[in-house]
Amino acid sequence: FYTGNEGSIEGFAENTGFMWDIAPEFGAAIVFAEHRYYGKSYPFGNDSYSSVSNLGYLSSEQALADFAVIITYLKEVRLPHAKKSPVIAFGGSYGGMLTAWMRIKYPHIIDGGIAASAPVFWFGNVPAPPEHSYDDIVTRTFINSGCTLQSLSASFETIRKMADSSNGRKFLNERFHLSSDSQVKNANDGEELIYAIQSVLETMAMVDYPYPSNFLAPLPAWPVKVACKAFISAQNPEQSALASYKAVNLFYNYTGSEKTLCLLGGACGDPFSALGDPDDLFRPNWAITNYGVEFPTATNIVFSNGWLDPWSGGGWRLTPTFEGSLYSLIVEDGAHHYDLRGEHPDDTQSVKEVRRLEKKHITRWIKEAREKYNQQKRITKDRILYAEIAENIF
Q1: Can you tell me the distance from the alpha carbon of 387 to that of 394, in angstroms, rounded to the nearest whole number?
Q2: Nearest 5°: phi and psi at 180?
Q3: How far apart are alpha carbons 75 and 81 in whole angstroms?
Q4: For 304, phi and psi rounded to 5 degrees?
Q5: pLDDT at residue 126 above 90?
Q6: Interval 95-116: pLDDT, tens
Q7: How much is the pTM?
């Protein structure tokens, strides 16, 4: 059972091949459940985003309740022969958080969960990750892929200087192939361009897979290594600036279908806005209050993280370890929920081992769930027998 996250469920189904690969081994049905308010799951149709009142039902708690109801309905109505079948949850990123939280909130409905790249510690209070850990991991991923801090900084500084002059701005607009409504017109636009480039590099680190992929965008194998080649080969300021363009073009236009790029937020649309101040309508630290952080009473959860993934800084544990039946698995050369992707000829040895361990845990969870069910069945039979004996005696 995939706990759908923030997007259309089809994309997650296409990029979670691990479930498809192992399901036949367990004789399992596969269910991908879409998160309310995403894809086609609009509770109020086209008006779902039209008011605060309608949006009031968009929350992780409501999504988890949806999943619980869906599983119960499927087992009791649509798949009655699976009424006593164990259920294993899977999720990546926010979906991984939902998987972990669902096992915590509904342990009677799911028997275990694979929470991949789930930044469950990425909240404001203890034990929050270091303030700059996301960017630190991005930097580490790029340096390990051949870049240097000097080459990256030189590119940004060159763009900053170019944005200060008319000739420099002309160079940026033309050589970056910026669309007419996304032109660098002043120094502030130059800063915005740098921010856009850095955002691309951060996202590229998330999807640094060892083979061509199209999870967030069509990309070649090891895209960070490809991007780094331009940065480290730059011989002059113009080439240094263009290294950033090549990285951005690689991410947004690897297929070569786009003639121009729209990079400045005011023209292209900003998907995020300010989070608000401490006095806004949101409940401070509610995720911590609602779900906890260390999960001392939780059982049967695997938290997996990729060492290349910037989100791993908010992972449950950053080294391979276990506490009770909570396990931390690390894909040493893995990006964002790499282990949930389908088997590939170019898979690294590290991800193969993590998937092997995940299958081992899933096998154990299923065995334990069936043993528990059989034990309950025997107890029920014994109670019926005792009741019949007592009735005959009295």
Answers
A1: 11
A2: -60, -30
A3: 8
A4: -110, 145
A5: no
A6: 999 999 999 999 999 999 999 9
A7: 0.89
Q: How far apart are CA 340 and CA 118, in angstroms?
A: 12
What local confidence, expressed as pLDDT, does residue 277 receive?
47
Pairing of strands 88-92, 326-331: unpaired
Alpha-carbon distances of 31 from 19, 34, 40, 166, rounded to whole Å? 10, 10, 16, 56
- All domains in the chain, ordered by first residue: 2-125+285-385 (3.40.50.1820), 133-268 (1.20.120.980)
The rounded distance, in Å, linking the Cα atoms of 252 and 246 is 10
Give helix then strand counts, H and E, for the chain. 14, 7
What is 169-187 written as a DSSP string? HHHHHHHTTB-TTS---SH
Whole-number CA gyration radius for the chain: 25
- Block residue for tokens 């694979």: 114
Residue 3 contacts residue 91 (beta carbons within 8 Å): yes
Q: How confident is the model at residue 299 (pLDDT cuts 50, 70, 90)?
A: very high
Q: Quick count: other Cβ atoms within 10 Å of Cβ 253?
A: 16
Q: Chain-centre distance of CA 231, in angstroms?
A: 28
Please name which of 141, 159, 147, 134 lies closest in space to residue 264, comparing C-alpha atoms. 159
**Cβ proximity of 98 and 32 under 8 Å:** no
Q: Which long-range contacts (CB under 8 A, 24 or more apart) does 220-228 make?
A: 220/250, 220/254, 221/346, 222/145, 223/250, 223/251, 224/141, 224/142, 224/145, 224/147, 224/308, 225/145, 225/146, 226/250, 227/142, 227/145, 227/147, 227/201, 228/142, 228/145, 228/146, 228/147
Q: Give 216: exposed, middle or buried? Use CB within 10 Å, 0-12, 13-18, 19+.
A: middle
Q: Name the CA dihedral angle for 312, 315, 318, 324, rounded to a multiple of 10 degrees.
A: -150
Mean per-residue pLDDT, 295-314: 95
Phi first, then psi: give them for residue 393, nearest 5 degrees: -70, -45
Q: Any idea which residues carry the catalytic annotation?
A: 93, 309, 336
CA dist., res. 78 & res. 237, Å (int):
64
Q: Which residues contact 83 (CB under 8 A, 6 or more apart)?
A: 75, 76
pLDDT digits (tens, 9 = 90+) for 181-231: 889 999 999 999 999 999 999 999 999 999 999 998 999 999 999 999 999
Query: One-letter amino acid identity for 12?
Result: F
